[in-house]
Amino acid sequence: MLLQLHPICPNLQPYVKLICTMECSEGEGMKHVHVLPDACVELFISYTEVPVAIINQELYKNSIVNSRMNAPTAVQMRKGAGCIAICFHPGMAFPFFSMSMGVLTNHSIALNNIWGKAITEIEEKLASADDNETRIAIIQKYLLQRLQQHTKQDYALTSCLKLIQQKPEINLTALHQMTGYSQRHLARKFDQYLGLSPKEYLKVNRFIASLEHLKNYPQLSLTHIAYQSGYFDQAHFIRDYKTYAGYTPREITRSQHILY
Questions:
Q1: Together in a domain, 234 and 117
Q2: Sign of torsion over alpha carbons 251, 253, 259, 260
Q3: Residue 257 banded pLDDT, cuts 50, 70, 90
Q4: Which of 148, 183, 217 is where one domain is finished?
Q5: Residue closest to 67 by CA, chosen among 196, 163, 215, 190
């Protein structure tokens, strides 16, 4: 599998976490990987005739939108497949879809069911492009066009999401105080922008924070990682790994087929 990261244009940087090209050569076998939840919405936009991938045992022949909010995904890349992968920051995909993210939660959906014939035209342009830099320019131009159609941004919620990532130990009471939203209104906003309730997002964000500590500081004890990630005790820490990953922390670090 050849992965190549590409620069994100300034106007998309508040929304897009990364853009990369993914190419699986004809000589490579189909790889089975277990991808852990990251609370992000991702696009996989195809530029080859080969089906993009098998996700949770279902074959996707063309471009898809994938949402790994709080459940792992089984992915099998196909020989000869090539696509552009776009990962949005948590809560930042909504302006490009103009639909509640709750519809996408933990699903993979054909992108033409959402963007219609526009994605077919984009796929054709990408297939005929001479290089990946041209392909990246084409897709970023289209994303900017969709962004211009979105006129309203909830800055209170955006600040709220940033604070959660900075302080994974934060609680619901602090979120209500920060945004000034009632419990019901905040729940509606989270479903609209993230596809999760505030309580569920706080839980999965702690799990994601712990994965970062596990990856970056493998020498630390699990107890230390748990507390650094906002957990009150190791029991909740281990329970979340069983829920969100299906593996223990040590099994994740030793495995070759788990991506996080």
A1: no
A2: positive
A3: confident
A4: 148
A5: 196
